[in-house]
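Quick one:
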Amino acid sequence: MFTKYINKEITPEERRELFGWIAAEDKDAELKELLEQMINETGVEMCLPEASSDTILRAIIDKEGYQAPAQSPATEKSLIPLWMSIAAVLVLGFFVSLIFLRSPSEIDDSREQGSTEDYRRTSISTLSGERKDIRLADGTEVWLSPSSTLEYPEVFKATHREVRLSGEAFFEVAPDKNHPFIIYSGGIETKVLGTSFNISAYDSQEEVAVTVVTGKVNVTNTNAAEIEKIELNANQRAVFYKPTTKLVKEEKAITDAPDMLKRKEGMFVYRNEKLQKLINDLEEYFGKTVHVSAQIKDCKVMANFYVTDHLMDILEPIALSINGIVEVNDGEFFISGEGCPK
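Output:
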């Protein structure tokens, strides 16, 4: 829990348990052993004045909002060495995590993200077949697709409003020209002032797509040797290809961008989409494996469905539209066919 606290990965429940343990348990020996281990591993030596150790820990606990239970004078006295030890560990761990345990790229990434990392963050995830509607502190609304995770601060206090997305979500960003809204997802950075758009950035897929419905966004390729930026207007899309780290803007306006609005109600609409791309999404949404024969994987298909529908009810009409069939074997789905209709 201590390591997770230093790395800002600790949950609220674990944080309460950690600071309750600090105030209630006598673990001086374990703390000293941890401190010595960290010093040996990093080669760092650090000296803390006794008078400041207690002050440091008290400040940390006050910042966390933890109220220690009332103690008798004898108990408070016995806790002083513990507090001094944990203060030293926390301070050393803080500097070690910043200087020694993080790669240069991680340090640069943190610098880009501004000071929102200083504030408590929340992570919300969806299971397969599940969607969630999330309202952020600034009024931005996010519709999180299945098998996705959104990480965001409980309160935006920096010059930028920043979140992280793994998976897919539709955003309606609250306008604020003085505080751009930034989404980090799958190797790209999407920056907006106030607009609606969809981002698909599943870890298992080779493409990350940003589709703008209203307004304007800027998409930056953070993996390129030289920074690449693309500006998108309504009904435009940019695709980042992970294998080549290329960011490409589709010059022709796309007619299906307004269909993204239907995802707010839970309807997923595909028009003239490659079958394999649709199947990749369905695997994420439903947590199932679907195999497609090579002869039909590039066929263009159409589909309208809700994630509450049965997967077979979605796959059967898609297969029929390309003269294919669907079979199920050991919980996996197989779509086969002779080729795309002419």
